[in-house]
From TrEMBL:
Positions of the UniProt region annotated as Disordered: 1043-1214
Name recorded for this polypeptide: Maltase
Provenance organism: Pseudococcomyxa simplex
Segments of skewed composition (Gly residues): 1195-1214
Taxonomy, superkingdom: Eukaryota
Annotated Gene Ontology cellular component terms: membrane
Disulfide bonds: C58-C73
Residue span, P-type domain: 47-99
Swiss-Prot/TrEMBL GO biological process terms: carbohydrate metabolic process
Compositionally biased spans, kind Low complexity: 1051-1187
Alphabetical keyword list: Disulfide bond, Glycoprotein, Glycosidase, Hydrolase, Membrane, Signal
Amino acid sequence: MASASKRQQRPFCSPSATLCTLAIVASFGALVRCQSGGFGSPPPAAGQCDAAGPRQECGWNGIEDWKCASKGCCYDAKTPTQVGTANVKVTTPVCFKPNGGASNYDLNGGFTAAANGNGLQGTLKQSGSGTQPELGPDITTLSILVENVTPDILHAKIGAPGRWEIPKSIFLAPNVTASNGPASYQFNYSVSPFTFAVARSDSNGQALFNTVGTRLVFKDQYMEISTSVPETAALYGLGERTSSTGLELRRDGIPLALWNRDHQAALPDQNVYGSHPILMDVREDGTAHGVLLLNSNAMDVVLTQSRVQWRVTGGVLDFYFLMGPTPNAILDQLTTIIGRPVMPPYWSLGLMNSKYGYGSAEFYQQILNGYGNASIPLETFVSDSQYMNHDEDFTLGDKFPLSDMKDFLNRIRAQGQRWVPILDPPIHIRKGYEPYDSGIKEDVFMKDISGKPYVGQLWPGAVHWPDFKNPNTTTWWTRMIKGVYDDLPLDGLWIDMNEPSNYCTGDVCWNDDTVPPRNDFVCMIGCVSGRDQVLATAGNKSVTLNESYFNPPYTINNGDNAYNISYKTVAVTAYHYDGTLVYNAHNLYGMLETLATTSALQSLRNKRQFILTRSTFLGSGAYAAHWTGDTNSKWEDMRWSIPTILNNGIAGISFSGADICGFMMKATDELCSRWAAVGAFYPYARNHHSDGWQEFFRWEGTSIVARKVLATRYRLLPYLYTAFFDSHTYGCPVARPLFFTFPADNTTRNIAEQWMMGDALLVSPILYEKTTTVRAYFPKGTWYDFYSGRVLDATNGGKWDYVTAEMTDNVPLHVLGGNIIPMALGSEFMLTQAVRNASHALVVAFPKANSTYAGDRCGGRCGGAPQAGVQNACGHMYLDQGEELNMTRSLNNYLNLASQLVQQASGSYKGFLSATFAGTPGGSSGATCGKDTWTWPTIDTVIVMGVGPVDGDSIVIQAVNAASATPGTVQTASVDSTPGVTNLSAGTAKYDAALQKLTISGLNFQLTCPIGLRVSWNSGAPAAAPASAPASTGAPAALFGTAVKEPASPPNSVVSPPGGPGSASSPPSNFGSPSGASTESSRSSSDAPAQGSPAAFPSSSSGSPSPSGSSSGSPGSSSSSSGGSSSSPSGSGSPSYSSYSSSSGSSSSSPSSYSSPSSYSSSPNYGSSSSSSPSYTPSPTYYSSPSRSPPRSPSGGGGGGPGGGGPGGGNFFG
């Protein structure tokens, strides 16, 4: 939803020679007193002014330096006025009170053994008189606890009795017990003054966190601690904010505020919806560590070239030091504490669509028609709040009658799609509205300082906010959701505005029952702020809360303008059922709502939940997906989305994405096309917007690219779902900054416009207007163009090169040698169930001979230690029912993929590939195949890249019992004599000498636990430079029959048994475009493809024989020996779209399909008050019956048959 912010008027002191002036701040109604100081005061002593320290205003805007000094204050003429590169202004006092005074504590009596027997505890006593009294009195006695969590996690907490701490129960953390193993850290300290340093325990002994030479300040509402940091370190994290300066954090001394607020993500370099107090520090040698401060209070973190300083307004200093030493290891350690990233339902990885402004249930049907007619695979329809009755939760509006909504839901169920509606947390204050009436009766709302339910304003009018910290609220919330679910069985929920957002600012507000629904963010109710005003207006004389909570002594850099932290949200003086102040728990509100919603969905559906939340805190990623909020439809917003999503991953939020094509303003065809290509490789993919109309089917160009990139995404879902399993198991992000995979390569440290998707795929999109080529970085390794198979050789070190993609091309994508990727075959138009049902391929990408794998994997090394003469590639595939609540870890869940090229004494190579049920990480010892109800796919095709000339007669295909396989390795013994192995005779082999690619298709091998697949072959040595070409030589080649511009491939070299077809004298043919005799080696005794009609891979295993002679592709697929398009699958999960007519039987006023963009250049505004539907010029309704295939765009290429790849044929993986 849209949001707007208004600048709050700041407390000020008048420029006067008098000592103090009283000023009334109109927006708060509170008396704000100037602090002491006046002209003629002595200037600050040496060391009293810290330009990077906390600044309390001591003058006024424009004060001269001599006047500032005469007030006894500090003056800094170099104070920045702008942050980042997007012309964002920052307000920081130029004249400020002395802030460099010492503040020390001594360790009184030394350390003693901690009560839990796993660490140390002690008492800190303040020495000296403290500093900065304007920030409040010091707490003179503190406790300190230092304890081992694991050998790689050190916990150090400084606090005092009775102070707020985050309840650990909110974290879905795995069970981790303290370990007595050798620690990877040292904790060094001094007694007087007490300082400490955390260092690695290796011979280097590098200090990672060092407070020596800094001060420790601990007051009731201000705490400060600092560490020195090398200038060469790269720092990351501390979200959430949109960054205009890339992925690496700025170190300009401007405080980074952590305080959840409803602020447009389109306005960068400011705190927005989430708070993630995790800092990652990557040193010049590639080692990394993390610093987690588990604190939910408002805070600033200040980064300079030599120091990091935390300034926190409450709670305790609860630090966890994560020793790494790699970024992936840090995420493993972080999510040990805050919870592993959520394992999403399989279906939620498909495309979603929503819009703020669909004004009727009939309009929903029109959108389904639009996507279906355009053959764009829409998996999930997400409903914004227009379906409600005037934005009241748990209701339906006049244009969304229950009968129409049931028709809509029946249709998407029949088409294999899903529905996710929105809920906002506030409840409209209206008697007779059941959620309000029952909420009052059950006392589930947060209270204001006067003891009444807190009143604010949002979409429906005056509202109360549920107290999600109260267990009774979860029961009430579940019952409210059940009322909707019983009528309309939703598949998930989108929870928004949960920072929480509020039109108003005030400690106490009241409702006069006259405020109408509105979306302009203008407060229309009465409010007062400040303790005195509350006492005078509310008539409550029992308010005991200190004035400092109404106007905190330290103001964080909220919004880069020091906005009061109660501005446009629930006042920090409000409280929860147990007395917890919002001052302490504000940043947890969205997460607490996520917990309640998780409980509700799990109890109602008994399935894995899908929740999309806007507001987050550390640990939110263990329960929900997250999107980056309100972006603009602008090129810079598309670029900024990438580091924002990558930063979310650093905070343990793997399931993250941005509004594809932008939320506000109107996208162009070019921008939406490029954004569709980018968004197809977000972990979470949703087209969402408010202004205009920008669904993917609105423009011809966008429709073309959307079909291509989404076909790529859906076919990669076996790989992507596995990447989510890895994230859920080990904590690593799904979308990773390049420095996660290549931490020792300093060039990767601030690359914010490329990313790794899982272990194997490098995404390098086009992000600039009127551009078709981008300079991309390829770290050390062997890289294969995903579409053409061409090699980019960076084995001697990282290199920059150019990649090219026209507007309607697929996104540039490269595979890192050393990996194996599982992929689905099938038609271009598949939903997730069709992907699960389709035949699969295994793609092996070997690194260059005599090179080692350069990347860091999620979960660690596979394939064994590097050995001379051995090339390793590995991977795995996870599969389950797709949304069962209790994930299983039996043998049947996990397919281990391992491949080797082993050099023989003769100089030739023996190659192996195994796909075996070797056991799921985290599974119990002696796990069996279990009694699971899903079926593993058929393996139709194996592709091996980076292999020398293959002796076709040496290829052996075998079925392997899991009991005979060694997890994570490829056996090098004679495979024919291995127990539990059965030789098979099926498949067609082909070798491409130019690309050094072996393709074996038509295997039709049904994976059934415990029986896996093994392939072996003999080959010559790989060439030194296989088909290496600059990445800039044209657009990516065709993917699975979806055409892009691609020059003809070089002639194929054929693998054939002696005397078989395709001898050396056979005429050459371009790949996918047969010329003359067959160039295949058949391993099947019958049903071989016709001469001149090579198997078309991988659209649907066309031409690949099964034992019965029929195609073994996805359900309902067909092949064409003449190269025609293959029909869209009509089996389970492959929707057959039909036109919609209203339930009354009368025809809809809107056509069943959409016309060219000119037909809707002046579309009306279909808000919640509109009852009309848009008028479009009719066009044919494709997908009106399951037997009809949609026509292809002239530039969209053919289907799965031969030649469907466009010019020159040219699908790589086939």
